[in-house]
Specification:
The complex is a heterodimer. Chain A is of the alpha/beta class. Chain A is about 40% helix and about 25% strand. A six-stranded mixed beta sheet of chain A has the order 6-7-8-3-9-10, sandwiched between helices. Chain A has a four-stranded antiparallel beta sheet with strand order 2-1-4-5, covered by helices on one side. In chain A, helix 3 crosses helix 4. Chain B has one domain. The chains are: A alpha/beta, B mainly alpha. Chains A and B meet through helix 1, helix 2 and strand 6 of A and helix 4 and helix 10 of B.
């Protein structure tokens, strides 16, 4: 299996604080890798370094065989990101936002791409509405459309179903599952929803305090730690880690 | 009426002000600048009360030119601020955009915004006051161009601060131009400033631009050396501004301010 992303000894220090401590992992083609950890454990910092938004203190991120630090612009054409903490301009309509990002990513047939995404993500009924007027579920689907506008081969999803109702959450999860298989995509999924991670991810990284404290397939982790589900594994690992601290 | 609730709301703002040096400076800044600017204007009119005799509209023309500078700089800053306010900042910086492309797009958009604001102002001065800025003739193009370059250069300086320090730098965006207004000698010649300030003012292209505008309107003399000096200074500041913007981007990537700038 081809590795799309290789993270080698990645570290980030802010002043005297080590936010990420020499972590290494890889993501294969057509793999959804889960990234689990409590708030402030270094997930967002890790994703930011992988996206070239943040310069690592040490280590490197190799994407499709190229170092992100040296090839940031060319690699960003193949990547995208969705997070509940960033939004699209509220005063622009959904279509206008998608046109803008289609242009920024150099998409050749923007109208066709928007039409395709509108159908797949059920955006047609509000495509001409201002983005700020949408419900959180609709906004989430628009953000997903923006994240897929450039047909990325690597996608970073930071809590993609946070604050969604169960029906919309399930729709988004099914869509991610389908699109990753169809497009042979590599996805890094940071989430606090353990069922979502178990359903979507082949492998999971457990982070705490800037370190990877365990990794493996969800079922293997559950078995290894003698727990009923991933949530119990998460709680056990983080409590152990916090007690050691 | 509850005194506790009144005190509570007072404290909400008091805590905000006392914890933010930029906010405190902002409170001091505006009255100080206003007093300095109008002090120099008053001094000028007291000393040279006949300077503008028979020359209708010099002040109004200079006001329009200054407004053009103000609008171009603010337009540049506003484009940047709008990305922060709409929490779209991170989306932009994970798109495959080079810094040069970002600067070029902002420069072009700022020009459109500036012209939308300026053209109506120019149009109404003629019927309302019988004055046309077009009386400046061909040099007007060079004056506008020079002001625009300086405006976007200031925009670059402020945006560099926004990139590095985030929304806390917002007040500087609004106040940067007023700091330069007294030194820019918009409504009076440079000689009106104390000698120390004259030396500083000579380092600004504004002095040469407004000197040239007055020279044309008051003396009907076009002095191209003023225009040349303004352009030379503009190029120097523009290069510094662009370099600073690149440096701030690199620092923002190191310090992590690109991640949480909209939060």
């Amino acid at each position: 299996m081809q590795k799309s992303v290789i993270v080698e000894n990645l570290s980030k220090n802010y002043f005297n604080k080590e936010a990420v401590k020499e972590i290494s992992f890889s993501i294969n083609e057509n793999e959804i890798l889960g990234l689990l950890g409590p708030n402030g454990c270094g997930k967002t910092t890790t994703i930011a370094m992988m996206l070239g938004l943040l310069k690592p203190t040490n280590g490197r991120v190799i994407i499709h065989g190229l170092d992100i630090e040296k090839n940031r612009i060319s690699l960003l054409h193949k990547m995208n990101f969705i997070s509940p903490y960033i939004e699209l301009p509220k005063k622009l309509t959904v279509k206008e936002n998608l046109i803008v990002y289609g242009k920024l990513y150099g998409v050749k047939f923007i109208s066709e791409r928007i039409k395709y995404l509108s159908e797949k993500l059920r955006l047609e009924e509000f495509i001409n509405k201002k983005t700020g007027e949408l419900s959180s579920g609709q906004k989430n689907r628009v953000s997903l459309a923006k994240a897929l506008i450039n047909e990325p081969s690597i996608l970073f999803l930071d809590e993609p179903t946070a604050s969604l109702d169960p029906e919309t959450g399930d729709f988004v999860r099914s869509f991610i599952e389908k699109v990753s298989k169809e497009k042979n995509m590599s996805i890094l999924l940071a989430s606090h929803n353990m069922d979502e991670v178990k359903r979507l991810c082949k492998n999971v990284l457990m982070m705490n305090n800037g370190e990877i404290i365990d990794k493996g397939a969800p079922d293997n982790l559950i078995e290894k730690h003698g727990k009923k589900n991933l949530e119990e594994v998460f709680l056990k690992l983080n409590r152990n880690k916090n007690e050691l601290k | 009426m509850s005194l506790n609730r009144i005190i509570g709301l007072f404290l909400r703002h008091f805590f905000l002000i006392k914890s933010s040096l930029p906010r405190i400076l902002d409170l001091i800044y505006w009255p100080t600048i206003q007093i300095i600017l109008w002090g120099f204007i008053s001094k000028f009119f007291t000393t040279y009360s006949d300077y503008y005799n028979n020359t209708v509209g010099v002040i109004l023309t200079c006001a329009i030119l200054y407004d053009f500078l103000f609008r171009s700089s603010i337009s540049f800053n506003m484009l940047f601020l709008e990305e922060i306010w709409s929490r779209n900042f991170t989306n932009l910086f994970i798109a495959p955009m080079r810094i040069s492309e970002i600067i070029t797009a902002l420069v072009a958009t700022a020009l459109i915004r500036t012209l939308i604001g300026l053209i109506p102002a120019i149009l109404i001065t003629s019927p309302l006051f019988g004055i046309s800025i077009l009386n400046l003739g061909i040099p007007l193009f060079f004056l506008f161009l020079s002001l625009y370059i300086f405006g976007i250069t200031l925009g670059l300086f402020v945006s560099s601060g926004l990139l590095r320090y985030g929304p806390a730098f917002e007040n500087i965006a609004w106040s940067s131009l007023f700091l330069l207004a007294p030194l820019g000698c918009i409504y009076y010649p440079i000689e009106i400033l104390p000698e120390f300030f004259q030396d500083i003012a000579r380092g600004l292209p504004l002095v040469y631009i407004f000197e040239e505008a007055r020279s044309i309107l008051v003396n009907q003399v076009v002095n191209y050396s003023n225009i040349k000096n303004a352009f030379i200074l503009n190029i120097i500041y523009l290069i510094i501004g662009i370099t600073l913007f690149y440096y701030s981007f690199s620092q923002a990537r190191k310090k992590g301010s690109l991640i949480n700038i909209g939060e």
